[in-house]
Amino acid sequence: MKATQEKTDKTAFITGVTGQDGSYLSEFLLDKGYKVYGLIRRSSVDTTERIRDFMHHPKFELVEGDITDASCMNRLISGIQPDEVYNLAAMSHVGVSFDQPITTCQIDAVGPLNILEAIRQSSPHSRFYQASTSELFGDTTEAPQTELTTMTPNSPYAVAKLYAHQLVGLYRRAYGIFACAGILFNHESERRGEAFVTRKITKYVASLQSWMDNNSGFPVKDVDVLPLALGNIEAKRDWSHALDMVRGMWLMMQTDEPSDYVLGSGTAHTVREFLEIAFRTVGLDYKDYVIIDPKFYRPVDVNLLHADATRAKEVLGWEPTIGFGEMIDRMVQSDYGSVIECRA
């Protein structure tokens, strides 16, 4: 059943609200008339950069808490009684999860359990969305991947996410909770964290354009600019824009029956291809600036992720609208604009 596009007076509770997906989803829901509560962890550092444009919206409210604290989740969900709960909070950097496996497990596995238990005990009418990931598929030899593809996670991050993914199905079957999971393939945007390879690339390219704005000719590696150090550039991923993904999340929550869906573009690209397109936007060749550094290789990697989102198209009416090249161009232009602002 396809969802309606009408305004609503529903209430949503979003964890991970200050992240890439959380900020886009908040804007999307506010535009539809939702009252949005966004969970934020207490911190001495300001983490609200991505949500500043709507922080003072009359229907948006930040609430402090931590998904690893079960009593906190129960108190908040019991008090808010949200129509929809979107769990987007995660330790989502695959490489870092190898260095911090226990923290990753607490946030990505125990956190969703705390939320599901709070819904079961205090707000059983609430619909629940879990942000699953294509990393669940790990080293599967099946491609492209669907909702039924074998899952063999290949990192602490993916293992923790698989635990949460299985919980969604369990709570759906055992307690009748409307719980669904979006198996989202890689998605990027201008708001992507700077630790991720895609933003590392687009920020670097933007800095090269800035150099050319102020100098004649092209920058020379190790003379005018430092090289861009990367790991496995042959890894293949299925990339989409985050704006398309948050629309898919919402569509999953509007159906009559809860289920899990793969979301992805259906086309896989290597990191090398990402480099080629990003550098081409400023008229340069990535080979003149990129070096391969073994320290950026993961202990175990996933070489091919390729989505088959047929079910989401047929049931939800979902399709991506922003292509691979457009996504990269948006990111480079945004990073270039940030460089200009800093320079000013």
Detailed description of the structure:
This protein is α/β, with parallel strands linked by helices and 344 residues long. The protein has two domains: 11-190 and 239-268 and 305-322, NAD(P)-binding Rossmann-like Domain (Rossmann fold), CATH 3.40.50.720; 197-233 and 270-302 and 331-343, UDP-galactose 4-epimerase, domain 1 (Alpha-Beta Complex). Helix content is 40%, strand content 15%. It has helices at residues 20-31, 70-80, 94-99, 101-122, 156-175, 197-214, 242-253, 271-280, 310-316, 324-343; strands at 11-15, 35-40, 60-64, 84-87, 127-133, 179-184, 187-188, 228-230, 236-237, 240-241, 261-263, 269-270, 290-292. The chain has a seven-stranded parallel beta sheet, with helices on both faces. Strands 7-10 form a two-stranded parallel ribbon. It has a two-stranded parallel ribbon with strand order 8-13. Strand 1 (11-15), helix 1 (20-31) and strand 2 form a beta-alpha-beta unit. The chain is globular, with a radius of gyration of 20 Å.
